[in-house]
Amino acid sequence: MTAIAQLVSFIGGLNPVHVLLCAVIFLVSLWWYRGSKDLPPGPWGVPVLGLLPRVFLELRRGSHPHLLFAEYAKRYGPVFRARVVNKMLVVLNDHESVKQAFLNPNLSDRPPNTLIAEAMKSEGVAMASGEPWKDLRRFSLTVLRSLGVGKSSFEEQIGQEAKALVEEMTSYDGKPFDPKYLFGNAVGNVICSAVLGKRYEYSDEEFTHLMHVIHKIVNYIGSGGLLNAVPVMRVFQRNKTDVYASFGEFRSFLLSVIASHQSEMDPENPRDFIDVFLNEIDTNEKAASNGSVKANGSVRTNGFTPGKANPPNGLPPTRHPYLTNKNIVGTIANLFAAGMETTATTLHWALLYMAVYPEIQQRVQAEIDAVVGRNRLPRMADKQELNFTQAVMLEVQRIAVVTPFGFPHAAAADTELMGFRIPKGSLLVSNFWALFRDPKVWPEPDKFKPERFLDKDGLAFKPEELIPFSTGRRSCIGEHLAKMELFVFFSFFLHQFTFKKPDDAPPYTFESRVGLTRYPVQYQICAIQRN
């Protein structure tokens, strides 16, 4: 019997359903292979589900996707692809690929139908794409700058909150406390002063509860934000009721703040970000009622140019046509939650490293004492002389990797990156964990070595490969503010206290929990006041 006859006989003895299934898998595999020659290399995964089972397996083992992807990068190179159900991920694992991708206008969108936008019923500046995103980002940056955020004039606002936090930590009188939510409250108050126009006392139960709600949301979104970016993954999400309930609480809080602003605001004297946003919405509505703005948000000129101070025919200027009641909640949520969670978590890690490395803590204190003295608190003007202090904070940002993946980008069109074709609709994931642990850039990457950020003259410097606020067109809006907060809070802490592990506490660990951010496992610490 010939080989062909044997094969026909074998197939004839199979169940027809099995034959059909094998044929479908073969055709899908053939299509995938033929269409993937110019794509980045990568693991095949399970048919239909792709890498989803492997990701869930790693999570059940207590590992995290950024570690799995870093291992794949060693095998397939710094740019590789992976499929999660119906979405192609292109994972970027070195600085050059991230820089090239995030400078490319075709790779600056966000995935459609994100969990955050769905649950908040509003996209906002962080989740929007295309012209709406450009408009919201321009507006947000302009208004925050006009309010002084990130400028030297805003230092007093940060310093006042840092003093309030120091007083709160002093009240523990050297006894153990958990710093996590204190930091969230303090950093939240800084952004609240500019966005919401008020601060909240550390004893405020409503605001403390909100901190817990935001932290739950960060956990729900999951490592790398894949649950946020890939809708089909939500089918496998447990506690869906709790997820949407937490988002609902956050949204209700913001809506109540907006309603309060609407009832109290003076359009001629806006107090904060919300007031300015509401003014722009009012301008757009008036322009729309006069036929100058289309329903989809694009502008009809009708004889005037948007943004001009005195348009002809009496119509109001439409400078930001995409500012609407629909995206105000999302934008405020983005600024508030993202600005609070990442900075507070970085400070959380910083205290842990100071307690574990007392010799480094003492060296920071000695430098601050030499430059600042004991009769006043540090100022931003001292920063240029506090080189080791700067180096320590840079090393904390590198080694802690507070956002292992950041937010995924989406390809708006077929694009070439690093010699590979990136199909339209692909999700681009930046693996900052791999970037900040790259031994070619950071020798002994797992060691806490602030000296790596000091040059031969002992001056602090930041290599371009360190991008904790991401890079390119969608880099963090609050980067300048966050840098000021980290310096002011950290220098105040080390000027006023020595941080130690409680005597009866278990040994400290650098193990982490990973949601959208990577944060330390819960720990208690003692803040011993310095003379």
UniProtKB/TrEMBL annotation:
Cofactor: heme
Alphabetical list of Gene3D superfamilies matching this protein: Cytochrome P450
Annotated region (Disordered), positions in chain: 288-321
PANTHER family noted in UniProt: CYTOCHROME P450 508A4-RELATED, CYTOCHROME P450 508B1-RELATED
Organism: Patiria miniata
InterPro entries noted in UniProt: Cyt_P450, Cyt_P450_CS, Cyt_P450_E_grp-I, Cyt_P450_sf, Cytochrome_P450_fam2
Keywords: Heme, Iron, Membrane, Metal-binding, Monooxygenase, Oxidoreductase, Transmembrane, Transmembrane helix
Protein name as it appears in the record: Cytochrome P450
